[in-house]
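Study this pair:
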Amino acid sequence: MAKVENKMNWYDRIAWGIVIPVVLLAIISLYSIWIAAANDPKMGSPKQLVLIQAIWYLVSVVLIILVMQFDAEQLYRLAPIAYGIGIVLLIAVLFLYDRQVAADTGAKSWVKLGPLTFQPSELMKPAFILMLARVVQKHNNEYAHTLRNDWLLIGKIFAWLIPVAVLLKLQNDFGTMLVFFAIVGGVILVSGISWKIIVPIYGAVFILGAGAILLVVTPGGQSILGHFFRAYQFERINSWLDPSGDTSKGAYQLWQSMKAIGSGQLFGQGFGKINVYVPVRTSDMVFSVIGETFGFIGCCVIIFIYFYLIFQMVQITFETRNAFYSYISTGIIMMILFHVFENIGMGIDLLPLTGIPLPFVSQGGSALLGNMIGIGLILSMKWHHKDYMFSTAGDF
């Protein structure tokens, strides 16, 4: 490790290209929650909901500042601790889960402590990304890139993934499990593993995915999958395949979301105007608020904000020239991309409903904390890379 004198002031060390999109998404979040709650008496006071979300944002900002203080060497050492805490939380939720949420959704992934509900798997995401980055960094420092060693690295990656996947399966949280698989898929691509291994693996995944789709769209296939999935999950699949088939039950929320987005047309109904009722609109279906009030143009703007944020993350990663940081940023980018793609996709019936929130916009403290920790990790790259330049060789 070579230490370099830093001549940049604190203002120049902040990645404003990341901060500004997040601030814009925060404003969109508070607006969407206010408008959705104001038009749905069942959700309670709009002021209270917006205040709670604003408090979560303030807590997240403090958390970002804290995370930014850790450089690459410290994050490398903290990774096993963060992973261990995450595993403990995932085990604890199996005993402390909210019974009412489990009865309504079928998932045992939420803890309720008094008025506070919390989803431990959201904090496990950045912890898992840190651990994954450490595993790849350590392996690449110790082994040359041969086919045998690359297979060994894949084995190590899945050895750390399996406990998480098993615990999420026990929680019946299939959507969150998909996020972890997306993270692993992204990190494998940048880990240096030979394309002679990557191409067959990703080809097999594609074939399995295509086969799974064929199974879910046929009655015989669904009977086979019935041994692995629950009834409410098939209800979501059926509503995806035919959202207009039964709009009074499982497909109601999706159908209403599509109506809301479609009613916005090109320019939307106008600021604060909502005419279509969508259940629990502030969380999973928050994108429908943007679609209805600001139309196709508003939808394009928010998608552009997300891709600009991703672009800035990629740019900072290249500037730091740090392999360990690159693995971390890849995991975070894949996490955010998957959330955006899945949330928007399910809101317009491109993908089945999975309960995946829209990053930085959907109501919810645990999801926001997890995503903001990821932002803090990215910001720490620019905050520290002028002070500490780590070689990709050696184990810190």
